[in-house]
Amino acid sequence: MKLQKFLTVQILLAPELKMIAARSVSLLLAILVSAAGLFAQQAGNPTNAEKQTIQMLMERIDRLEARVAQLEGAKRPTASEAPAQASSPPESMPSTVEPERMDLSKTLLHIRGFGDVTYHGDTRKGDTTSFSLGQLNLFVTSDVSEKFKFLSEIVFEAGTDNAVGVDVERLLLQYAPNDYFNLSAGRYHTAIGYYNTAYHHSTWLQTATGRPFLFEFEDKGGILPIHNVGVSASGLIPSGSLGLHYVAEAGNGRASSSSRAEAVQNLVDENNLKAFNLALFARPEKIRGLQVGFSGYRDVLTPLNQARIGETIFDAYGVIVRPNFEWLNEALVIRHAPQGASRIFHTPGFYSQISKRFGSYRPYFRYQYVNAPDNDPIFGPVYNTPIGLRHGPSAGLRYDASESVAVKLQYDYTLVRHQQAINGLALQLGFTF
Amino acid sequence: MQRAPRVLSLLALAVLTFLTLPSLAQGQTASEESLAITVNQSNPVENLSSAELRKIFLGEKSHWTNGRRITLVMMDPGPERKTVLRDIYRMNENDLNNHFIHGLFTGEVFVSPKTLATPVEVRKFIFNVPGAIGYVRAGDVDASVKVVRIDGRLPDDKEYKLRVQRSGK
Asked: Residues spanned by CATH 2.40.160.10 within chain A?
């Protein structure tokens, strides 16, 4: 009965399936004929061995039946499947496209990791040479739907007390209906100039071992509102080959009520005043890798027991970034204007960085400068980072040991107002995984 | 009588040469064939400039004019991908990886390209994804996908720029 059923199934098969099944059946018949011979010799008195043989054969038929059913199922085209052969085009295209649905059977997350380990030392009084864990960065994205995307950077990082903490450095839900208007909400890197939007929490992506001190993170003594919580709109401005883009942001701004306050106002804004930032930049098609732009940032800071202070940051830059060559030039000025006071405090700063790749090696040079007034009402008293005058060159060599691992050696010479010049040396291993 | 086969051979060679000449004259050498840029049949785009094509492949342009998100499909390393890297990206494989890692990291690139192994898979993907764009050899094109003009030229045109080394099929 089983054999008959098997042969019936056989007839219904596609040609190639028939071939597979035909071979199996031939083999089976041969086995059955041999078995039948054995039966004839020992008719009427089946032994245990014979019973086992029959059982084995029946099981084999079952397996073959299951396999045939599986192959038939795989052979049957599904509604959404395109023709497999070039010679058989689809009879009709779908007239309407079905709305996108979330596939609950698979994860939507994409995770990429970045990390670094550095050995460094400098001549600053009290500093020791140390091996340092850099930021372990889990960069998580998810294509939520055709127009929505999620992006986040979760960073594990040790503080000066050697304790490791976790920070959500970026968390954004992006809505992108077209190239001209993208809306993001969450925590982002403020689009002040170039460096802060081009480089985030990964040393591997950067040429040098660290960020220019103008763009240092808030918890590392940085003076800019690097992070912000709010909304950001960006997109193309129709401009042909000029490639104009805009970014407009509104957020909580940087905390200023106390030196102990967390710099990024993740949950509660200390006042009702919002920080605004507008950036414009161009990427002309004619010069590959060129980007020029400027930005203006405005916030009102409210330090305790002080008058409100208007903070304005203007930034302008011109960069050329190509795979083999990089030249970054960026200048900014931070303006602090206490209300009711006649004095306005200006902090100018700039950096210039150039590098060229020779095979796996990329030598680079950076010069940076920042000059904050000693009596600035924000940097010293509120941010606890009396930055003063600080400038000097850095020179280094980056060696890409593989497409995911970079080794960098960097020397820094930094002149600081009222202090001795600092010589520093760092060897860094940066990687992505 | 013995001369007849030789004459026939020469004749055949002459015919073959005659048939081959037009394609050589069109700027396509015998060892090359065109690489067709293909999109979904429902996509209204007919023509792309080289600059637009580069922006699309770099992820700098992320939406079609009909609002659909662009999904780029690349092929595994091989002659076709080599042509795309050389003539569209103008960068090597490592630089391409870095470009997409960096672009995704800054949020400027919405999605990274999907990579498939065969022309059949590429055609299937483009057939099923309305915003998809990819590339296959001109000989692998069928009615399931739509070929886009590049700078106004189709793969059969003599000035068409995307050429791939002919495979040894």
From this structure: 110-432
Average pLDDT, chain A: 82
Nearest CA in chain A to B127: A82
CB atoms A205 and B144 under 8 Å: no
| 3 state SS for chain A | CHHHHHHHHHHCCCHHHHHHHHHHHHHHHHHHHHHHHHHHHCCCCCCHHHHHHHHHHHHHHHHHHHHHHHHHHHHCCCCCCCCCCCCCCCCCCCCCCCCCCCCCCCCCEEEEEEEEEEEEEECCCCCCCEEEECCEEEEEEECCCCCEEEEEEEEEEECCCCCEEEEEEEEEEEECCCCCCEEEEEEEECCCCCHHHHCCCCCCCCCCCCCCHHHCCHHHCCCCCCEEEEEEEEEEECCHHHCEEEEEEEECCECCCCCCCCCECCCCCCCCCCEEEEEEEECCCCCCCEEEEEEEEEEEECCCCCCCEEEEEEEEEEEEECCCEEEEEEEEEEEEEECCCCCCEEEEEEEEEEEECECCEEEEEEEEEEECCCCCCCCCCCCCCCCCEEEEEEEEEEEECCCCEEEEEEEEEEEECCCCCEEEEEEEEEEEC
Q: Domain A110-432, what architecture?
A: Beta Barrel (2.40)
Q: How far apart are CA A111 and CA A138, in angstroms?
A: 7
Which residue in A257, A259, A294 sits closest to A273, CA to CA? A257
The predicted complex's ipTM stands at 0.74
Q: Write down the residue that tokens 């400039």 correspond to.
A: B49
Q: Which two tokens stand for residue A29?
A: 């018949």
Shortest distance, CA A139 to any CA of chain B (angstroms): 8
Q: Which of A24 and B57 is assigned the larger pLDDT?
A: B57
Scanning A127-146 for CB atoms below 8 A from B yields 139, 141, 143, 146
Helix A15-41 to helix A2-11 angle, to the nearest 10 degrees? 160
Distance in angstroms (rounded) separating the CA atoms of residues A262 and A257? 10
Closest CA in chain A for residue B60: A179
Interface contact flag, B142 A176, Cβ < 8 Å? no
Tokens representing A48 are 């245990």
Query: In percent, how much of chain A has pLDDT > 70?
Result: 75
Q: Do B120 and A323 count as a contact with CB atoms less than 8 A apart? A: no
pLDDT digits 0-9 by tens, A421-430: 999 999 999 9
Residue B104 predicted with pLDDT over 80: yes
The tens digit of pLDDT for each residue in A38-70 reads 444 444 444 565 666 666 666 666 666 666 655
